[in-house]
Amino acid sequence: MSYSHIFMLMDYDIVKGLILEGINLQLTFIWTYNDLFIMFLSTALAYRFRQITTKIQSVSDAKVGNEITWKKLREDYDKLCRFCKALDEQISYIVLLAFASDLFFILVQLCSSLKRMRNNWERFYFYWSFGLLILRTVCLCLIGAKVNDESIKPLPILNSVPSDIYNIEIQRLIQQIASTPVAITGKNIFSITKGLILSIAGAIVTYELVLVQFNGNALNGAPESTGRCPDYVYHSPTTMKIEPLDKTSKMEKPMTPVNRESATLPKVKTSLENHNSHKSFSKMLILAQVFGFLPAQGILGPDFRSLHFTWKSARVGYTVLTILGATFISGMQLYKIFAKGLDLMEANRFFFNFSGVIAGCLFLNLARNWPVLMKDWGTVELSITALACRFSQITARIQSVADAKIDTEIIWKNLREDYNRLCRLCRRVDEVISYIVLLTFASDLFFILVQLFNSLKQMRNDLERLYFYWSFGLLILRTVCLCLFGAKVNDESTKPILILNSVPSNVYNLEIQRFIQQIGTSEVAITGKNFFSITRGLILSIAGAIVTYELVLIQFNDSLLTSTPEDTGSCPVYV
């Protein structure tokens, strides 16, 4: 009985039992309603911000220069921000309670997961309830974060407003959006943004690690003796060759503004005929299609106009068969986990197989959008000749114009608009590949942590040690390279601001002021669905997480450092 402790103090009858069940139902409802309530309010607020963004976009497209119109838009945005702040003050305790209860019950479920389950029904109930807990927490974070996401969307539009309609009201609106973060908070202890999911996940993983170390029985399961060594999984980093850039950005001698623009354009067009992004990416696409991913057609064509996608093709059929095969293997691995219980090695294999299923689906969706994406990219290349390289070209052009002390606003306007177009392209590319970025970092970090766990086990011979250090070194190298190369987009996008701030006063004008304002208020970077941005600081964050994990393992796994692995007829699996 669920209420045995109560009926030990009073006599039992059906009425009392029904009353207690009714109360329990109410408590269950309010626990769920807290989350739904926050989601509903966040959705409504996000919708209002989206409406204002749509109005700003329409006014900008119509090139309305009337300050009264822009003043009304700014006041509408300000009213909505003030309402959001007032609403947050009223519901912040509810937000705090909702997140605290969700996190608490997730940790309780994790603790229960270490106990032996008696039958399949108990296992089914655990996975079902735990899955719902994770799902509701993720939905709460994602939907709640929409308020913050939608509140900053007008900024790129405002930075793209033509110079002839730019006015003080637009400038004030840009400053307000850039300097005043808008979000639902838990009594200002935290803000609901997409990055909050990673913070919660980190807390959960740390808690689970400590639990696992105090429950050694969960780690004692040895791989079954099959008379053979398990397969080693090797991941070779795929590199993409970047074609050499043309030298149009290097000015050998001072030129007049008119000659500068006219001389650059033919060189850019000539370069595009030989070194366009479509040709640079074609090698990468061919390699992907050999293994059953990215089934776009026309990748060997001369430019992006030859690209197309159709479901009725052998490449798509090959991709679908690849995904179905990975799904079948993942399903069998999941069945084994349900039948024999979950351990680290089985989770490792399932994660690897299932990440292949996700990657296949993501790349299939990317193939559908690839022709349009390359078309947008090609359009940008007509005016400025893969993202970090293009930002460095714009920086070089800005430096040459600044050194020549050119004060013509049209030249600076062209430079600012080129930079703005490249920023928009970067955001579009990020929208298309952000799930792939998220999956890549998650899988790399997961396998690094698995390797660290394996490092605490006694190794039997030098060959095993050599393989471990080799595979672990490759994992670290590919992750560091991914961070450094990905961070180049952010690094190159901020370099022009140093040059612009050094422009002489007799050259300084409104276009330069807008340029500085745009770079200072808009972060340009590749992201993992806005959960994190690929910057150089991300390496330190990943290193901190790895060190924390290793310290926990060393602290609570002294036995693994001194014991010798049992001879089970199989070899440990290193990734």
Radius of gyration: 28 Å
**Which class best fits the helix and strand makeup?**
mainly alpha
How many strands, which pairing sense, and closed or not: the largest β-sheet?
none
Indicate the proportion of strand residues.
under 5%
Oligomer: single chain
Overall pLDDT level: 78
Proportion in helices: over 70%
The helix count comes to 18
- End-to-end C-alpha gap: 48 Å
Number of strands: 0
- How would the global form be characterised? globular
Low-confidence regions: 217-275, 559-575
Whole-number total of structural domains: 3
Helix-strand pattern: HHHHHHHHHHHHHHHHHH
Description of the structure:
The protein has helices at residues 4-7, 14-61, 67-113, 120-151, 154-159, 168-179, 195-214, 257-274, 277-290, 314-340, 344-381, 388-403, 409-455, 462-494, 496-501, 510-521, 537-556, 558-562. It has 575 residues and is mainly alpha-helical. It has 3 domains: 1-221, no CATH class; 275-369, no CATH class; 383-565, no CATH class. Helix 2 packs parallel to helix 4 (120-151). The longest helix is centred in the N-terminal third of the chain and has 48 residues, at 14-61. The chain is globular.
Keywords:
disordered C terminus, single chain, 575 residues, mainly alpha, 18 helices
Describe this structure in a few short sentences.
It contains 18 helices and no strands. With 575 residues, it is an all-alpha fold. The protein is globular.
